[in-house]
Fold Amidohydrolase.
Amino acid sequence: MNRIAFTNVNIFDGTGADPYIGEILVEDNRITKVAKNGESVNTGGAHTIDGRGRFIMPGMTEAHTHFSWNDQPSLSAIQFMPPEEHILWCVRVAKRYLEMGFTSALGAAAAKARLDVVLRNAINAGEFPGPRYLAGSQEITTLGGLGDNTLPHLPFRELNFGEVVSGPEEVRRAARMFIKYGVDHLKINLSGEYIAGIPAEASPFSEEEIAMLASEAKRAGNRVAAHARSSESVKQCVRHGLELVFHASFADEEALDMLEANKDKHFVAPGIGWLVSTLYHAEKWGISQEVATKMGYARELEVASETLTKMHKRGIRILPGGDYGFAWMPHGTNARDLEYFVKYIGMTPKEALLSATQLGGELMMQPESIGKLAEGYYADIVLVDGNPLEDLKVLQDPTKISLVMKDGELIKSCYDMKAPEGAIHVTGGNEPMRDEGVKKAMHAEAH
């Protein structure tokens, strides 16, 4: 049996309790003991890591993940990557998430039909390192909707970003195709997006089309995720039982009432980082603050901040994540969302951390085994050089993510680990991540 003991650590256990100094024992892939109040774990036969008072927390969950978004400035540029290179990109990015402390992730849509499924299967088979992953479908969209990139003179389906449908029967066909491929959930674009030239408050799908998708998903035991910025699209999610609501910026009081009445069924991943980054950090790619404001993003950020603040006060589950993988918000900078949750939604730092840990276990449908540092839970553990409750920005710095463990396996470590018979140094994955995209984004955020 593989035994690893963490001693002298400041434990944020994901239950809502304040941090406390204690010890944690991991045996194989599970946490078997959490000691506090001066108690100790049995370190006999265990490799020991002295945390020297550092902050230790559950692995985080990214609730709106696009691994196949390849840090490009447009949807078309993302889609133009050939499939062979695209899956290799996904493999590299999955490792990047893991090294930044995200040990679980939910796929919000794949750029090509099977990318998410293939990546999930490879991670599960142990072929490549990556977070626990739930695979999404390609975006299901309607003619002229978000994700329909076809041109009159080039009507080639293979070049399209989304799976374009029109009418309930085409929705049925698309749903069954993705279910055949083995997705964990389906994704539908129920509203528009300013950057694509489609008003965010538009709601292009008919009730009959949405009902068909919900019916097919239910028959197969799948959940449904929805790009839903408009108020009507949020109401459609609740009416048809679409569990995963992305964005929800313009939800009115009726929509909020509906979500609150069904808050045990729905999760909201607002993608607030997309609004902030597109408004303030995209000038290098031709989207100045003035341009973004004209598009509608300044107004949406203002409205979304008010809407999500109300949502949080009503106890509706809000989780971090959303649309990272564009040039001005590259993969690996996802922890920005936690800072924005405090700044724009009014969460406390503790509430922001719980949204990424405890609520992540619920989102991943494993609330009794993911998202907390507790006996019997999977050993998904992050050791941080700094205290996120005092400064959430430490989670954005790859050099501050000192150790990452997923399922009992050390993925990244900057610590000496003492073996029962002597001291050895952890080898493999012990160097801090030095991804250029993350470093550039950190520099831009600082200035």
Notes: Confidence is low (pLDDT under 50) at residues 421-447. The chain has 14 helices and 19 strands. Residues 60-363 form a domain with the TIM Barrel fold (CATH 3.20.20.140).
